[in-house]
């Protein structure tokens, strides 16, 4: 059953936007040139969702076209000034109703008491928020008991690649890439927030020879235990 709504979305629009023009232009290019593999993972990540969905950091709105018709409403946040208008445009042709809010998820959450969602979708975004552990605890409280967190995130590697990720995260990468951090153990944060991971797996993000600190994706489903 879909979760109830108690706060009109128009009331939670916030001034909390971000401006990373280099990252925004690069992401616009990348999101318009995705491989069949990442498209397949996006489809899988959203398959079977129902009811009200909260999507964090929608980018150009790439996920929108993959939502199944069983979703009744998507509330999507995108704070980046060059990306939010593209997400709004993508929302116009989405197969389900999508409302784009130009705010950080932190600003949205601070004003969204009483909101309940059937699911939260995080794709390639938990690397970029300031405090993923605190955010995931807040998201946990917004999901109805039995509801899900769907995640498709790039995660920390081990070995030499892991050491390079730590150097990248401490230097130029977050500054260039809209606060992206490559060496996060996102699944551990999801579990620490209280979710039960029902299934997840890792896949290479790009060919091993490709010179980027982003190496592996994790895709999975986590459930908020029923009360
Ligand atoms: C790499 S992009 C991924 C976009 C989209 N989720 C996708 O799968 O294509 C990361 C996005 O997260 C957004 N983001 C970063 N920090 C955020 C925050 N605190 N609140 C909401 N969105 C955020 C960025 O603006 C950016 O659009």
Automatic annotation (TrEMBL):
Keywords: Methyltransferase, Transferase. InterPro entries: SAM-dependent_MTases_sf, Thiol_S-MT. The keyword Glycoprotein does not apply. Pfam families: Methyltransf_23. SUPFAM superfamilies: S-adenosyl-L-methionine-dependent methyltransferases (SSF53335). GO terms for molecular function: methyltransferase activity. One of its GO terms (biological process) is methylation. CDD domains: AdoMet_MTases. This is SAM-dependent methyltransferase. It comes from Mycolicibacterium agri.
């Amino acid at each position: 059953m879909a979760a109830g709504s108690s706060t009109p979305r128009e009331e939670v629009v916030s001034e909390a936007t971000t401006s990373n023009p280099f990252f925004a232009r690069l992401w616009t290019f990348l999101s318009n040139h995705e491989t069949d593999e990442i498209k397949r993972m996006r489809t899988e990540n959203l398959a079977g969702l129902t009811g009200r969905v909260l999507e964090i950091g929608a980018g150009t709105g790439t996920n929108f076209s993959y939502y199944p018709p069983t979703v009744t409403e998507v509330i999507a946040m995108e704070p980046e000034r060059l990306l939010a208008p593209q997400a709004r445009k993508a929302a116009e042709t989405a197969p389900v109703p999508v409302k784009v809010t130009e705010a950080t998820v932190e600003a949205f959450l601070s004003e969204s008491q009483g909101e309940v969602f059937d699911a939260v979708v995080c794709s390639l975004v938990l690397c970029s928020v300031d405090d993923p552990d605190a955010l995931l605890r807040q998201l946990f409280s917004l999901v109805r008991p039995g509801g899900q967190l769907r995640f498709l995130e790039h995660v920390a590697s081990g070995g030499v690649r892991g050491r390079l990720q730590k150097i990248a995260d401490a230097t130029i990468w977050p500054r260039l890439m809209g606060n992206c951090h490559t060496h996060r153990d996102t699944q551990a944060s999801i579990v620490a927030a209280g979710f039960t991971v029902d299934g997840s797996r890792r896949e290479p993000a790009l060919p091993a020879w490709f010179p980027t600190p982003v190496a592996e994706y994790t895709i999975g489903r986590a459930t908020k235990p029923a009360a």
